[in-house]
Amino acid sequence: MGSETVCPICNLEHIPHDREKCPQCDADLTCFKVLDTLAETLAETAEPARSPNAASMRKKRVFFPLFLGGLALLGATLLGLGVYRIRMLESRMIRQQSAFTHAVDTVGSRSDLILAKQEQMVSLVTEQLESRRKLSEAQPLPEIRIDERPFLDIGKGDISGTEPIAGHFPGGSGIKTPTRSIEAAGNAFDCYRATDTDTLWGIAERFYGAGHFYPVLLEHNPELSIYNVSRKDRIAILKAAGEAKRIYRAITLLADNRLFWVYTVRSGDTPIVIKTRYCPGKACLPSKYDSHPNARMYPGTKVKIQLAGALK
Fold this sequence. Notes:
Layout: E1 4-5, E2 15-16, H1 29-44, H2 52-138, E3 189-193, H3 200-208, H4 214-220, E4 234-238, H5 243-251, E5 252-255, E6 258-264, H6 271-278, E7 302-306
Antiparallel strand pairs: 1-2, 3-4, 5-6, 6-7
């Protein structure tokens, strides 16, 4: 053993042997001196002795690879399980997608079948309506007979025994009409609630295709006032709009280049009632009614009322 030593950490040479630390890296040289002394002592002995630290280190060297192998095996197992679960999820998603596609295809095929049936029904109904229209046009129009019997004059203002008419008319406090329910018309009519801005011409144009068909509205709603439509009125509208033309031709006639509506007198009607309701301020009735404006008229009698704004 010399008087100088070498630092085993930074390899600094010429360090005095009595120094406890390396002047360059500040490493503890005492432990290395002890190790050197131990090595010399072991070398001098005849029978080498095994230190317990060496056995412990050997055990550690054996255990560490086993530990790493276990970790690797565990990691591989977890990875395999993860891959298996991913594959299972993919398989489930594929089955669900297949079931969804099948359901969509089924709904689509059913929808196509329903649409085809609807088209067949529409075509059938259209053919039936067309055949009915042709049949109605082929039928001759009924002959209109104007009853010219004298009306019954029972005195001015005497119109008892009748029901009040709906609505208010100028000077019409005594205006009467028999009761009539739209619901009694059956399935041939729809009920339309008018507005304050409606006119009979506009309603006929909307539902029947032409405004001059408004006498058809009056025919089915004789309680209406031609110039006084409001939201209080409920109007019966033909569901089969094509019938309006045929009915219009049946209830109107042309005489002396003037167009007339053949009105059927109702119970309680008088000339002033009819004029106030359908042609206020105008001479729309035959002249024989002018001298007896408040006389009772025979129910069921046909009276010509001259129309304004209607065309054949």
